[in-house]
Design brief:
Blueprint (H helix, E strand, L loop, with lengths): L1 H17 L17 H16 L9 H17 L29 H5 L1 H5 L7 E6 L7 H13 L2 H8 L11 E7 L2 E7 L11
Helix pairs in contact: 2-6
Length: about 200
């Protein structure tokens, strides 16, 4: 009996060495492209950063997917003016839901979304914008969105690596404009899925 038990554990050890557990299954991202407005918003953010000597942030496939997924969720489910702010996620999808309030107690709900939805290993940091106004061109729409973030110190700090974010180097960015919602996600890690085609 002892020999059989020893033989079992030896075989189990061998199998685990040859075929290690992968932990979690790799998530497949849909093959998506940026809309003209999303591309313009990315360009304007990049130009704004370059005016202050900040480098271009790579356009991440994973973070673009997270940004678009959230904008679609916001369009379908968000109630503007509720106590839950724009960083909230509904319970109507394959993600953990949360009501994000000004005290930031649910910050991890935002930070974890790239790992929940994609293979991106780092945290994600979102800035979000809501507007029902319709402009005639992608350039004008993007300019209005960025103008809103520039006027908000907290959002501007994230874009420009100021104050809390001054020692952070953004290595990935995701952009989405969908319905009345615009989201940009920043990450400190490089996206192994690569860059979106510009």
């Amino acid at each position: 009996m002892i020999r059989l038990t020893a033989l079992f554990f030896f075989c189990l050890f061998f199998v685990l060495q040859v075929h290690p557990q992968s932990g979690k299954e790799k998530k497949q991202l849909p093959d998506e492209q940026l809309t003209p407005t999303e591309l313009e918003l990315y360009k304007q953010i990049t130009e704004y950063r370059s005016q202050k000597g900040l480098p271009e942030v790579k356009l991440s496939k994973s973070l673009c997917y997270v940004a678009r997924t959230h904008a679609q969720d916001q369009t379908a489910n968000y109630k503007y003016g509720s106590r839950c702010n724009l960083h909230s996620w509904s319970n109507d999808g394959k993600w953990s839901s949360c009501c994000y309030t000004p005290d930031h107690k649910k910050a991890a709900c935002m930070w974890d979304k790239p790992r929940e939805l994609t293979n991106y290993t780092g945290d994600g940091y979102e800035i979000s914008f809501y507007s029902t106004y319709r402009f005639e061109s992608p350039e004008a729409t993007a300019k209005d969105i960025l103008k809103g973030w520039k006027k908000s110190p907290g959002h501007n700090d994230v874009i420009m690596n100021k104050n809390t974010w001054k020692n952070v180097e953004w290595k990935a960015m995701g952009v989405a404009v969908y319905g009345d919602y615009s989201n940009v996600w920043f990450g400190k890690e490089t996206d192994t899925e690569g860059e979106m085609v510009k």
